[in-house]
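Translate structure to sequence.
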């Protein structure tokens, strides 16, 4: 009977696919498992293609961002050597002779294009140079800021996923209910409230009046709560709304109704069918929001004096520390590329189509 059929494309679960392989083998038309190998090869090819594209993107982003930062610094008003000397020795100890000495020491009297070529040559050797203000290696200078920014972003993203995912899933179970309406109000308020204003409100309430949490610093685990909450409030509200819409749409699908008619409990249907199919959409949206999260880190870190990349970037701009400015901006840009890469790979892992398209003769 299997030999007389046309091609059958299976989009069912793993046990049914295993049964289909047995039927195909019994019919003498060759093992159906041969169709799985092209699927795996296609997936590996897609992964290699994504990695190659992101590597090219990382190189181009590094060149463009570093060049743009260098051009911006060159157009800023004021004497760069004077500002660097003030950062080293203080404004009281800065004279014209001191500024001239700093200019000659750092090669700031060379043409701008020579300074840019020198930066690119050092970058090819993976040498980020030295800070013009502190004299330390830029890599060592940015080691703590990179780790601090990753810590802050990870905590904020975790809070957004846990809170937003739970609220959105609960709201999807009763569309139009009280929780659903509150989620809509939450999203509207989160989008209308700027992060710096929300951060100030959290500082006034939880640090000044209640005294529960520190307003600034990086010394304890409690110091990450306020800046992470500032970043997570808006992100979790949007994520809750997207989760609600996605789960509600998938929950009304025919295959979900069929799973319920088989007698599966609602929790099993939610976990095995609804959330599993919603994962691809949620991961893609989370990747877009994570890019915006990297951008919001600059404002929040400056507000809470969090020693991250945004904080280092602001100080580098103020003191005209070009190597630190370029390296910090490039690091932020590469974080965006890394987030996009992780999202693409997660999408390939969650997308069932390449590995489920098995042809059984």
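Result:
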């Amino acid at each position: 009977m299997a030999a007389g059929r046309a091609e059958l494309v299976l989009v069912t679960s793993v046990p049914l696919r295993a049964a289909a392989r047995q039927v195909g083998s019994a019919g003498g038309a060759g093992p159906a498992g041969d169709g799985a190998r092209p699927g795996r090869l296609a997936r590996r090819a897609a992964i290699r293609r994504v990695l190659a594209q992101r590597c090219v993107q990382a190189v181009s982003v590094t060149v463009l961002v570093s060049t743009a930062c260098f051009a911006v610094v060159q157009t800023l008003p004021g004497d760069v050597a004077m500002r660097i000397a003030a950062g080293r020795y203080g404004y009281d100890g800065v004279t014209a002779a001191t500024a001239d000495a700093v200019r000659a020491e750092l090669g700031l009297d060379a043409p701008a294009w020579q300074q840019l070529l020198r930066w690119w040559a050092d970058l090819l050797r993976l040498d980020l140079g030295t800070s013009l203000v502190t004299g330390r290696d830029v890599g060592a200078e940015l080691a703590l800021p990179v780790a601090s920014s990753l810590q802050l972003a990870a905590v904020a993203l975790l809070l957004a996923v846990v809170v937003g995912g739970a609220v959105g899933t609960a709201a999807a179970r009763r569309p139009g209910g009280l929780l659903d309406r509150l989620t809509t109000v939450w999203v509207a308020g989160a989008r209308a409230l700027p992060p710096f204003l929300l951060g100030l409100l959290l500082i006034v309430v939880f640090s000044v009046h209640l005294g529960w949490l520190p307003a600034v610093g990086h010394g304890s685990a409690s110091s990450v709560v306020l800046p992470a909450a500032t970043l997570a409030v808006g992100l979790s509200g949007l994520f809750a709304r997207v989760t609600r819409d996605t789960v509600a749409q998938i929950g009304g699908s025919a295959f979900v109704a069929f799973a319920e008619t088989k007698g599966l409990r609602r929790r099993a249907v939610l976990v095995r069918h609804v959330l599993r199919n919603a994962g691809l959409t949620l991961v893609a949206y989370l990747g877009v929001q994570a890019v915006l999260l990297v951008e919001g880190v600059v404002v929040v870190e400056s507000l809470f004096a969090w020693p991250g990349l945004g904080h280092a970037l602001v100080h580098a701009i103020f003191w005209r520390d070009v190597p630190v400015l370029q390296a910090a901006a490039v690091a932020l840009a590469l974080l965006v590329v890394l987030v996009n890469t992780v999202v693409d790979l997660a999408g390939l892992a969650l997308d069932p189509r390449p590995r489920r398209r098995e042809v059984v003769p």
